Amino acid sequence: MTAKELFRKVRACDLRLQAAEEAYQHALQNLGVRAVRQGEGGGGHGSGSPTEAQAMELAELESRRNSFRAYWIALRKLADEKINLLDNPREYCCLQLYYLTSRTWEQVAELLQVDLRTVYRIHGRALRHIDEKEGLD
To answer: What does the pLDDT look like over 11-38, one tens digit per residue?
Structure first.
């Protein structure tokens, strides 16, 4: 797998993990609100405990989130190993900031004190250098 392919997967997995985390937190919040509303009525189901279907949905979301997290951790570890192959500090920082700290290209440019076009060039060189060191050129 080329550096570009790896880092594209890292970024995509990062977004999927964020979405899975948000879905899980949203379900947790909704479950808490439903439990409070059920308990407020004074009658009816009244226990305030989640239904079996709600509990199963939450367990599924948690499982999905944990799967994404495990994959994300493995990808990030591999990405970090690849980034550590770089000798050039600007290339190293560019990839670290964008892929491992989830900064935008504009933020990376600002932190490196260069314009956006220069960041893209640094990024491209960094990917080529990693592939060269890996023998994928």
So the answer is: 999 988 999 999 888 888 887 755 555 5
CA–CA gap between residue 94 and residue 122 (Å, rounded): 7
- What pLDDT, on the 0 to 100 scale, is given for residue 29? 85
**Residues contacting 131, CB < 8 A, separation 6+:** 2, 3, 137
pLDDT in tens, 66-89: 998 999 999 999 999 999 999 999
Cα separation, 117 vs 108, whole angstroms: 11
Q: How far apart are CA 32 and CA 39, in angstroms?
A: 11
**Backbone phi, psi, residue 37, to 5°:** -65, -40
pTM, rounded to two decimals:
0.76
DSSP state of 128: H
In whole angstroms, what separates CA 102 from the centre of its chain? 8
